[in-house]
Amino acid sequence: MRVGIPALVFGLALGITSASAQSGDLNLPRSIQAGAAFSVQAGGSGKGTLYIVGPAQFIKQDVQLGGAIEVAAGALYNAGHYSVWVTSDSSTQSGSIDVTPVQKPSDLTFIAKPSRLPVALHNAITGSAYVFDSYGNLITKPMQVSFQLTNQGSAPETRNVETRNGAAWTQMDSAAREGKAQFVARVGDVSSIRIVGEVPGDPCNIKMSARPAGNKIQLVTEPVKDCSGNAISDGTIVTFTATYGAEKTTVDVPLKKGIASVEIPAHRGATISVASGVVLGNQIRWAQ
Amino acid sequence: MSNGGRLLAIALAGATVALVVIGTLWPNKAAAAFSSGEQFSTSAGTPEAAVRSLGEQIRANAYQRAYDSLANKGEFSEQQFHRDLTSGWPDLRTYATLSDFQVQPLHASDSEADVRLKMQWSTVVGPSPSSRDLHLVNNGGRWQVQWPITKEPVVPPQVIPVNYLRWDVINRSSADDWGAQDVEGPHVRIVDMHPVQRAEGLVLLGELLNEDVIPAYVSVTATLLSKDQKPIDTEGSFDNISHQLLPKQVTPFLIRFPNVTLSQVGSVRMQPFSQLISASADPVIEIQNEKLNPAPDASVTGQLTNQSGQIANVAHVLGTFYDQQGQVVWVGDQYVDHALLPGVPVAFNIHIPEDLARKVSSQRTVVATYSFGGAQ
Q1: How far apart are CA B254 and CA B141, in angstroms?
Q2: C-alpha span between B364 and B5 (Å, rounded)
Q3: Which of A197, A239, B353, B367 lies 20 to 30 A from A177 at CA?
């Protein structure tokens, strides 16, 4: 029978109080795997109560003394060190048992950061994997975790890392091409997938052209790309500035379909520049 | 009810009656203004008195009375006069009240006069000054204002196709496992920071760049540390920043530390904050005819033109002023109190402190807009 944590305090108090009256050692295994059935041999006769108290679980069970007390499979499943007492009106017997994680991985918690980053960065993607058994216990025994980063259109990059204290981690490079990379951590037949967005870097070589449009100038950039040739994301702000004498016209235009386009008033002799973020593009002098 | 309770009830009722009588017999200015209007100065014996009377009527929202007093009311309707002062579209002026005004004579003869009416409007984001140069005519000893009407621009009926990008955000669910992936927050970077000592205290100026590919809500907090690394004060940029940054957009920021001197400061800890938000790249605002005007009354002036179809109800213009070395020397701002209608230019004027105007060599202006009915 399993009871809640509040009963734990009561159980401990009862055990300690009873132990002070009379004590003896229980015969029970030193350790079991989480969820395994086991038996406790307690001396004496008559009825008694079994208490198993551990870090995240407490079991109380009415038992018959003088024989094997069976603890059913699945009853004790949280890994940790447990104290065991069997008490009756006249005696208290105690012992301890370690519950270890099941050695077969059942779940993998995979933290991949960042979920979005610029292309062509060295060791910028971090993956951390934590291996758990079917009861959610961290498996501390060393295990091989395979990390695989697959970028669109290129061969997967794989690292095999052994867990230490249940965790393994690695660092990967972001690809030169933009796209969604699949980052997989695998241990045994358990795997977890994360998607890492590899986005274009800063614009490179912004070039614009100008042409008359009535009494205005139409300014259009060439498709804006980063230094690896990736198209800069739509919505990125491109700033056009036209300076004429002591006056100036400025427009922040978001990229649309890879280019930025705007119409500004035409002023003879105006110097027109283009920039995005901290990157400057070309300049045009409007002579018409 | 006990005797004590009965006495308290009687005392409260008596006090209420007494206050109502006092308020009725001796109302304050605001109350008088909102009531019958009999307390308005109706003197029009001089041009200044006529303009003052008009100002009082506007302050009291007595637009019909103000309209009736005008000499040229046949040229426009009372509704147009009302809209001229309070806007036809929802904007800062719509919810503003005239808190004060000054009358400045410019020119006068026996039959005509020119008077400047300087108005200070109280808006939700602070004071908004405006002025009108009024021409007055003497009609049989009574001076009347010829109101220089600025008719509300009419945007022709049209369909403006807008297909700018919009970003929507779906965050991880609270029910997800602790290791579940979430959307990455935007990456922002302070690209410039510079302290300036002013009479009122220390001011931190700088610029913040959204170096990501997604929009960001941003703000900046700074902590001043003394020479022995103890915190002196922590302040934020509040509204001296454009809070929404689209990808690769740069905003200036200004953080004020009143009553702190630069000599007290050993170092500064800057904390840029960014959060992923849903946003639209629309509307696009063009800043036309920007001009640096030298002292006195140093300023940067220009016009904002909304190139999109969506009305921008409130526009916040931020100017970054640089010296010859390209270092930020000041950040100024102005809220434009009129809505930006598609294709209709609206003027702005950002004041530059006189003592800094000499140092300013170039400037950069950004506009943040807000549309009622949804943050943009």
Answers
A1: 53
A2: 68
A3: A239
Q: Which residues pair with A184 in a beta bridge?
A: A148, A193
Show the tokens assigned to B129: 């000054």
Return the CATH number at B61. 3.10.450.100
- In chain A, where are the structural domains located? 6-100, 107-199, 203-286
**Angle (CA) B121 B127 B131, round 5°:** 50
Give B355's contacts (C-beta < 8 A, 6+ positions apart).
none
Residues of chain A contacting residue B302, judged by C-beta atoms under 8 Å apart: 248
CA distances from B252 to A122, A215, A281, B90, B258 (A): 31, 32, 21, 27, 20
- Work out the number of other CB atoms within 10 angstroms of the CB of residue B346: 21
Contacts of B185 (CB under 8 A, 6+ apart): B216, B274, B275, B276
Which superfamily, per CATH, for A6-100? SoxY domain (2.60.40.2470)
Q: Where are the alpha helices (DSSP H) in chain A?
A: 6-19
Residues forming beta bridges with residue B252, ordered by sequence position: B207
Residue B1 falls inside a structural domain: no
- The 10 Å Cβ neighbour count of residue A209 is 11
Q: How far is CA A98 from CA A15, A38, A166, in A?
A: 19, 12, 17
Q: Does B107 touch chain A (CB under 8 A)?
A: no
Do B248 and B295 fall within a single domain?
Answer: no
- Tens-of-pLDDT digits for all 376 residues of chain B? 566 778 888 888 888 888 888 877 776 655 555 554 445 556 678 999 999 999 999 999 999 999 999 999 999 999 999 999 988 889 999 989 999 999 999 999 999 999 999 999 999 999 999 999 999 999 888 999 999 998 878 888 888 887 778 899 888 887 777 777 788 899 999 999 999 999 999 999 999 999 999 999 999 999 999 999 999 999 999 999 999 999 999 999 999 999 899 999 999 999 999 999 999 888 889 999 999 998 888 999 999 999 888 899 999 999 999 998 889 999 999 999 899 999 899 999 999 999 999 999 889 999 999 988 654 4
| Nearest-neighbour CA in chain A from B332: distance (Å) | 17
Contact B181 A194 (CB under 8 A): yes
Q: Which of B182, B189, B213 best probes binding to A when mutated, by most A CB atoms within 10 angstroms? A: B213
Whole-structure pTM value = 0.77
**How many Cβ atoms are within 10 Å of A222's Cβ, its own excluded?**
15
The ipTM estimated for the assembled molecules is 0.72
CA gap A223, B51 in Å, rounded: 58
